Amino acid sequence: MKWTDDRGGNVDDRRGSGGGGGGMIVGGGLGTLIIAAIVFFLGGDPSGILNSGSMQPSGNSGEQRELTASEKQVGEMVDMMAKWNILTWDQIFKENGMTYSAPQVVLFENTTSSACGTAQSAMGPFYCPADQKVYMDMSFFGELQQKFGAKVTEFTVAYVLAHEVGHHVQTLLGTTQKVDALRRSGRYSEEQMNRVSVATELQADFYAGVWAKRTNDSKHILEPGDIESAIDAAEAVGDDNIQKRAQGYVNQESFTHGSSAQRKEWFMKGYNTGDIRQGDTFNQLLK
To answer: Fewer CB within 10 A of the terminal residue: the chain, N end or C end?
Structure first.
C-alpha cells in the first residue's frame, strides 16, 4: 500500500494516556474467541454487549507513557487512512446531493470510554452510533492473524477501518436507525434479525469496497496483493470460518455477519462498481 501526505483524519489517539486498564478478566478459551468474533465488525448499537458484564477491566494503572517510534508510525498510518475516508466519502455524498460528516477515529489500548459503554481491546474494532466514533485497539490485528488465520498487512487495517466507516455511512443514511427500530419492535424472531444483521454487515463490506475503488482512483494507493489481503481478512471473519474454528461445525441460521464467500462477494461488488447505489443488500438478501 502506498502512503500519501494526507493527514488530519479526525483521530483521537488515546494510547499511552493512562486511560487504559490492566489485563482483562474474560472467560477464557473459546468464550473469548466467540465474544471477540461477535463484536468484531458489529453493526448498530453495541452497548448491549459492551455493558453486559461479560468482560470487565481488572484495574486502571493510571500511568502515562511515551509512544514508541513504531506506535507513532501506526498513528500516522491510521490518520492517513482516516483522511482518505473523509475525502472519498465527502465526494461520494456530494455526487448524490448530500453532505458528509466524518466520524472520529479513536485509537486506544486496553480500555477506554465510549457512548456505547466501555471499549475493550478483546472486542476488536467497532463503530458506536451514539457518539459516531470508530474505536480501534491495534493489538486486535495480531489476534486477527493468530486466531482467525488472516494475513495482516497495512491494507488489512485500511479495510477494517473502511468497514467501520461503512457503518457510520449507514448511520448517516438512516439504515442503522431502521435496523435498530426493527430489533426493538420485538416483532421479529432471532433468526429473522440475524438475517437483517447479515445484510447490515455485508453492506458495510460493500461500502468498504466502494471506498477502496474510489480512493485508489484518486490517490493510486493500491499495490499488488492489497485487495487480496482485504479479501483474506473478510473471509477470515466470515461466520462459517469463525464457527468452524470455535465449535467445529456451522449453523447458518445463527449467522450475523455473513459467510466468508458472501463477505468476499459484497466487498468485491463494491470495489468493481464503485457505486454506492449498487449496495442494497437488504432487498437482495431478505426476499
So the answer is: C
